[in-house]
Amino acid sequence: MASTEEQAVAVTTNNDHLVQSEDPEHPANLIPELCRKFYNWGWVTGTGGGTSIRHGDHIFIAPSGVQKELIKSENIFVLQWPTKKYPAEERSYIRRPLKLNPSACTPLFLTAFENGAGCCIHTHSQWAVLVTLLVEREKGPDACFEISTIEQIKGIPRGKGKGMLGYYDTLSIPIIENTAFEENLTSGLEAAMKKYPDTYAVLVRRHGIYVWGDNVAKAKTQCESLDYLFQLAVEMHKLGLPWVK
Amino acid sequence: MASTEEQAVAVTTNNDHLVQSEDPEHPANLIPELCRKFYNWGWVTGTGGGTSIRHGDHIFIAPSGVQKELIKSENIFVLQWPTKKYPAEERSYIRRPLKLNPSACTPLFLTAFENGAGCCIHTHSQWAVLVTLLVEREKGPDACFEISTIEQIKGIPRGKGKGMLGYYDTLSIPIIENTAFEENLTSGLEAAMKKYPDTYAVLVRRHGIYVWGDNVAKAKTQCESLDYLFQLAVEMHKLGLPWVK
Amino acid sequence: MASTEEQAVAVTTNNDHLVQSEDPEHPANLIPELCRKFYNWGWVTGTGGGTSIRHGDHIFIAPSGVQKELIKSENIFVLQWPTKKYPAEERSYIRRPLKLNPSACTPLFLTAFENGAGCCIHTHSQWAVLVTLLVEREKGPDACFEISTIEQIKGIPRGKGKGMLGYYDTLSIPIIENTAFEENLTSGLEAAMKKYPDTYAVLVRRHGIYVWGDNVAKAKTQCESLDYLFQLAVEMHKLGLPWVK
Amino acid sequence: MASTEEQAVAVTTNNDHLVQSEDPEHPANLIPELCRKFYNWGWVTGTGGGTSIRHGDHIFIAPSGVQKELIKSENIFVLQWPTKKYPAEERSYIRRPLKLNPSACTPLFLTAFENGAGCCIHTHSQWAVLVTLLVEREKGPDACFEISTIEQIKGIPRGKGKGMLGYYDTLSIPIIENTAFEENLTSGLEAAMKKYPDTYAVLVRRHGIYVWGDNVAKAKTQCESLDYLFQLAVEMHKLGLPWVK
């Protein structure tokens, strides 16, 4: 959702050609398609959530406060990479759609890109929110979400260049506390990434999740695998089944 | 669903041009598209629910007792705005499709428009119905639905011209009792709007919800955010997690 | 699902023109469209369930043992109305697609048509199955499913020519015991219809539901309203909320 | 998901014509369509699961580690039948798409084909995973999943050439323990098939299910019927309703 910080950023240019491509694999075509899928899974209803893709030295970002299933290529922001995270006014936008604001998640996406990601997805998945609440109650505010010996864990990397987790491994996703303003999550996200350098995702209590990956396919399928595990974990909890064997 | 009151209203005219437009953003095109989406979310199955849009001095209303996913532009009623709420016979219909009746929610939609709304949505969402029952049992018949410190709350306005709710705010949605005839909900809705002048939604016990917004996008995304919160609240209740921190 | 009884019925003719029409409202076009919707709701997966429409003196029936979301107009059986229920060999088929068998629900559909229905729908909805189990445990094998004071009840007729149920009415759906062969349900269905002459639906324990209506739109929307109520009832039971106020 | 074993297999040839057909019933067209459906049911998100079809002396296999809803005909592997299960390097691939790996489930699919199947489906359905956990806790590690007197059971064969299960029969699906590497499940699958020669499916604890059938339609509808029963069983368990009458 839009913040006043973002609204202060000036329109600098309108390089429409940056978001015009016949290639379905172009980021300006992938972002609308991904957002439609995420909407249908219930991850980004009510304009929640967002998606960003790095393509060479360009960052493509979905706009803020827009119905995610209706995003068009022409609604997409483009940043020159690298760029400043703060202050927002000095970010190097090379395309800004009129009347729209870039996602308030922008500094969080940039944090993932600094970390080598090629794509970052933010959802408000209810399963993600519920596991953050269950972990807090069962294990305290500093605990991670942990689950083990479920096949789908193999869909999550063990860390950069370390291959995928194995069936007998325990998947561990850090949880950070939510903040009043989304951009203020950035320092918490950075701290979690530093503390858990192998993670490809950070849960935000009472809010949702940030998932990234080396490229679009990896970010999306890792996001799907995690959501599968969160949903399974909630159902397991209802049935009195422990998450870690 | 149709009421005898509505059935008494005479066909006055058939201004077909009012519902013919190539513009996908025209109300006569938006209402069918919204109803298809709402049907797929399970909000308006069995002909339940409805949608109305104010466009300048015209009110567009989905018909009553019709399969919501099959509504066509030509099925849409148009009222001259402003118009009488009661008696229904004296409402200024400037387009009435033959053989159809306007939504029994019409006076409720008109109440929202008198309050400045640009679009009003009525759903029979099961999550909405369940929270009305849980609130009644846990907090009594006069209590509102309340939830706090969940990110999605930021999708709901604090009140007209007051910006959006913050993460630490408590969202409060009034609940009115259902009546035998839908149009008789109007006085309850008006009373709730007077008592809670900042609300953009009213729950109806054992029935569903009315949500409105300054325009179509806001009404729809507020409706999605509320439904997300109701579903989350039901799941939180099952898991023994409190709604207000 | 197919039974040996059905397989014995001989192919008598192949009046292809009976299922060829450009009119989307023609039964041969409506049955495939309805079955696709029912598949997406999870009501007829695994070839379960079926649909039949009476159109003048013709009965259109979906085939047995076929993937319901893939049914084509050319797969549809046509019976001359009236026809015999038993023995199946003497039913007046005026169109039989080669290699297919008519739905094993045929005698049950015919029972609904004898009762004045224009369309009959059979689903294996899990919510329907669960309420039959909950009613049996909570109220005994002879009890009906009953629910009251829920708005969606108004989507169900009070009886033939008696208008719709009101909000304060109690909806009552009889439940019959399942049998080893689907066609043997017929006498139980007939008995339930005789005992509850106003009902438009009969639940079958551990199996699903038969819903009918004066025409296709009514049968479909009544089926949706009932399924909404069954799902709500299961969730209410989980939350300890009584079905009848 | 891909394994190192599979990655060692060399590209041998590229018979593109084997996966090019205008016939929607051709395996190279059916696999993408099935995978899209399975993705929408949530069975193969995060690149989990897979599908394989035997067509004459050709085996068509979906690739590994690919977004299942995006599979195209050109992504499909073709094996000459019969072929070796082990070592993977000696399997007779007559078509290998560049840059892709065949499903790690390949030896499991081949086991089903050796057993006479025409199609084999592997899903990570959460309902399947949950029943494996409930059976283990309630009945021990050696117990099968069992359910009786539910109509949908009639969608599952009693065994090869033995017709379908009846309503009063008890459906029994063996459960094998998961292994660190998917291909190592093969011996467990073979043992389960030997011990339960009539079964058309094997559950894998904490992983999912393998379902096969004499042809594509049977494998798919049997997979749907089983998933229906697993979901129903989980809900029955939540409601305290026993699986076997």
From TrEMBL, chains A, B, C, D:
GO terms for biological process: L-methionine salvage from methylthioadenosine. The keyword Cytoplasm applies. The keyword Cytoplasm applies. Binds 1 zinc ion per subunit. Its cofactor is Zn(2+). It catalyses: 5-(methylsulfanyl)-D-ribulose 1-phosphate = 5-methylsulfanyl-2,3-dioxopentyl phosphate + H2O. It is an enzyme of class 4 (lyase). Substrate binds at C105. Residues 1-18 have a biased composition (Polar residues). It is found in: Cytoplasm. Its EC number is 4.2.1.109. Pathway: Amino-acid biosynthesis; L-methionine biosynthesis via salvage pathway; L-methionine from S-methyl-5-thio-alpha-D-ribose 1-phosphate: step 2/6. One of its GO terms (cellular component) is cytoplasm. It comes from the Eukaryota. SMART domains: Aldolase_II. Catalyzes the dehydration of methylthioribulose-1-phosphate (MTRu-1-P) into 2,3-diketo-5-methylthiopentyl-1-phosphate (DK-MTP-1-P). This is Methylthioribulose-1-phosphate dehydratase. It comes from Penicillium subrubescens.
